[in-house]
Amino acid sequence: MSWEFVVLGIFVGIAFTSESITGFGSIVIAVALGSLLFPIPQLLPILVPLSVFMSSALFIRFFRDIDFRLLFKRMLPFMLAGMLLGIALLQVLSSDALKAAFAVLVLWFALREWYKLQRGIITRPKPVWWQPWWTFCAGITHGLFASGGPLLVYSMNTFAIAKANFRATLVCVWLGLNLTYSAIMWQQGLIQPVLPVILAYLPVLAIAFWLGHRIHKRVNERQFKQIVYALLTFSAGAMLLSTIP
User: Fold this and answer.
1) Is the pTM of this model over 0.70?
2) Which long-range contacts (CB under 8 A, 24 or more apart) does 58-62 make?
3) Fewer beta carbons under 10 A from the terminal one: N or C of the chain?
């Protein structure tokens, strides 16, 4: 295995530890950092199946924490529709320009919410259309970059969700979407050549699962939100930097 794949393994460990802590962030961080080494189209056939493995483990371990009403009524239908549109748009749009715009949007949201948390500002109720629209947009970004987490967190921001339910429910979204995404890439013949790399990274996922859950148990709700916003800021900043030639 070349040194690039060794470094990518370190990035995978960091990224998937974040998913074990918060329920999201694995692919957006891995794509942002990994794009320093490989083109994004080369990364996705590795990272998306790895996300299926991690999400499956988290799903089995934390099944009782899932908010199924929120999952099937508010999340999955809009995310799936958006993802299919995003996959189609990937063929015709400039991915670097879109990624930069997406990163700026996420950075703005994360810094704004961190400021509100520090100041104790209460989030105002949003219109009925607000959450479905942003969830649909999260699906589009997932189809384009396999990175729908930041906008999905944004869309779910008005709901009072305990950290355990938040993590477990998000994990179900990634499991459903990335199984679909993996099936599409398998049909396209993109996963088969990188199967040895995927299998080589499975021990890294096991360590990330263990470490992330230990951190998750040690933080309270306020600290959990701070971690989420810090993770969003880091992810957006890394993604923005990866678009600079």
Assistant:
1) yes
2) 58/19, 58/20, 58/23, 58/167, 58/168, 58/171, 58/209, 59/168, 59/171, 59/172, 59/175, 61/213, 62/164, 62/167, 62/168, 62/171
3) C
